[in-house]
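Q: What would this chain look like folded?
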Amino acid sequence: MLKAIIFDFDGVLVDSEQFHLQAFNSVFAKFNFQLSTQEYYERFLGLSDKELLLVVAKERKLSLSTQQFEQLLQEKAIAFKKLASTQATVYPGVPQFLKMLADNKIPLAICSGALLPEIELILKGAGLRNFFDIIVSAEQVKYGKPDPEGFLLALKLLNKKTNQKIEPQDCIVIEDSHWGLEAAKTAGMHPVAVTNTYSADQLKPADKIVANLGELTFADLQTLCC
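A: My prediction, written as structure tokens:
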């Protein structure tokens, strides 16, 4: 039985992945290299900022102190905020989809590798913050997707917030990447993919794949949890 839905953020609710790449490249420019769009989407999109910087620093042999590492993360966050605060857009159909779920009293959460201030900034600017009972961001988990830690934490917090007993099989996850879909599967939840970022053939772990959230009816969602 459908009792909750957990959303990824970037690439599902808002079109902001490109700004993460631009923000990282503004930081990497001082080291005289850039990540290509293809490399970012193929290798790094599912990672948190910290995880991405750890991988890149190791591969590019950047000798960073702990202080330098944290400074680069801060610079990236500032660059992203400047871009997202003026340019991030909500995907078509998202507000209507969220309203449909709210009308049916379905508890909603976000589980994202983005930072909480970034998520809050965009949600509030788009007028969507009140739809979500819980937000799990990169700061709250030790392991990012495809590890299921974030989804399981979101479900735990939803149960506490709503005073319900929602099991993983009662929960749908909406994602745009195979990392997130794998995490949802491992958590025992029902993954739905939206092709905002990757093509359908790259989203095989999903139970259902749609081009946009406007395609999903409430009956579709209920069927997935039967």
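The chain has nine helices and eight strands.
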